[in-house]
Write a structure and sequence with these properties.
It is built from 17 helices and four strands. With 425 residues, it is mainly α. It has a two-stranded antiparallel sheet with strand order 1-4. β2 and β3 form a beta hairpin. α3 runs antiparallel to α13.
């Protein structure tokens, strides 16, 4: 295992494996959810399950081996919705044409990743916004976790969000899981998150609170999967909708990747290769017939479990491959077991708020917009857009516009154009 330099990074095979298991289980819901969303675009749900597993496995292993980063890659939530409901639904492109959009965007992404432009963009982003990105992703995870655990639910016409049903056994079990995992984490018990998942799962099954569902996926479908490979349609390549889709998707992928990598990577020296892996996997995703992969925010759960090297990502990727056979077993794990890990991981990420200078409102307000708009819009890139566009405006109001780097002005303007393009679409 010298390839991953475990001793140099202060970790071990056991620690990395535990982190890989935790990251995998935290994001395993993507195997079911991504095909459901892409089905609305017309892509076969059963074939999409295979595509989702395949790109997640390949992407995670590639991230681990190439970038040596403890990050899991999966089709991005939000990006898959943009693919389905904007590119296909609102713009009227077919899913084959949408895959062509993914291909073109990926080539631009890859080209940028192999220039100094990616590093220049990262260096131009103010520290307060970077900290805001981390905290915003954290708050996003908290809300996802609370929803998955049934602790908060849609309030309908009466309220945006309301407290869940605390008489529901699974909701109470999720609450117990948060307490258990939190106590174990505070006591610095190695494997605290994974222990929480196992304990809550066993309790739910023993007490009869959770009945495993059935999987719609079968290895028999694999022979039909070739129908998705390379199913591009470039017939509308020079149309206005296609060009606008490419611009918008490229902006989303590049800056969501920058935001996620900045928020999750503790070792910033791994950024460049991780960014390149993200670009390459966007290309692979289109080739394999699914929406683009991004670094999963849930990777933070494995990192907080102790994952420090690419071995964490390789373990998670291997588990994705194994899920081709054992996908039905994932149904035995209730959301109540996964929710606590996601909630506590998000809370830990929100600790980055302490590094934002609250005394300077021109720094705090743009960061605040990122923090609240990421979860409220359920989109990392939308949250970034609000904060990035606001930053130079408030610096101008304070008379400090000269402190904003010119690259930041360009990024802010591009985000403004993206918001306009998406609004028009």
């Amino acid at each position: 295992m010298d390839f991953f330099k475990l001793k140099e990074n202060g970790t071990s095979v056991k620690q990395e494996m535990m982190a890989g298991f935790t990251s995998f289980f935290a994001i395993s819901y993507i195997i079911i959810v991504n095909p459901l969303i892409l089905a609305d675009a017309g892509i076969s749900q059963q074939l999409s399950v295979f595509a989702t597993i395949l790109v997640s496995a390949v992407g995670s292993i590639l991230m681990g081996v190439w970038a040596k980063a403890p990050l899991v890659m999966t089709p991005g939530m939000g990006v898959n919705a943009f693919f389905t409901y904007t590119i296909v639904g609102s713009m009227g492109l077919s899913w084959q044409e949408a895959l062509a959009v993914v291909l073109v965007s990926s080539l631009i992404f890859i080209a940028i990743s192999y220039t100094n432009l990616s590093t220049t963009l990262v260096e131009a982003i103010p520290s307060s916004l970077k900290q805001g990105i981390t905290a915003g992703i954290g708050l996003f995870l908290v809300i996802i976790g609370l929803e998955n655990g049934g602790l908060i639910v849609d309030g309908g016409d009466n309220s945006f969000i309301v407290l869940g049903d605390l008489t529901n056994p699974l909701t109470l079990l999720a609450l117990f899981g948060i307490v258990l995992s939190g106590v174990l984490y505070i006591r610095k018990i190695r494997g605290s998150f994974f222990i929480g998942i196992v304990v809550v799962t066993i309790l739910s099954l023993i007490l009869g609170f959770h009945s495993p569902g059935t999987s719609s996926f079968s290895l028999k479908n694999v022979t039909e999967y070739t129908a998705l490979i390379g199913a591009f349609d470039f017939s509308t390549m020079f149309s206005v909708p296609f060009i606008l889709a490419v611009f918008s998707l490229t902006m989303i992928l590049i800056f969501e990747s920058i935001g996620l990598l900045e928020g999750l990577l503790e070792d910033k020296s791994r950024f460049k290769n991780a960014f390149r892996v993200s670009g390459v996997m966007t290309l692979v995703s289109g080739l394999f017939g699914t929406s683009p992969t991004v670094t999963a925010a849930e990777s933070a759960s494995g990192i907080k479990e102790g994952g420090k090297t690419g071995l964490t990502a390789v373990v998670a990727g291997s588990l994705f491959f194994l899920s081709l056979i054992f996908t039905p077993l994932l149904a035995y794990i209730p959301n109540a077991a996964l929710a606590p890990v996601i909630v506590i991981t998000g809370a830990i990420m929100m600790e980055s708020l302490q590094h934002i200078p609250f005394e300077d409102f021109s720094e705090w307000l743009p960061a605040f917009l990122i923090v609240v708009m990421i979860p409220l819009t359920s989109s990392i890139v939308d949250g970034l857009a609000f904060g990035f566009v606001a930053y130079p405006i408030f610096k101008l109001a304070k008379g400090e516009l000269n402190t904003v780097k010119k690259e930041m002005h360009v990024v802010s303007f591009l985000f403004l154009l993206t918001m306009i393009a998406i609004a028009v679409l």
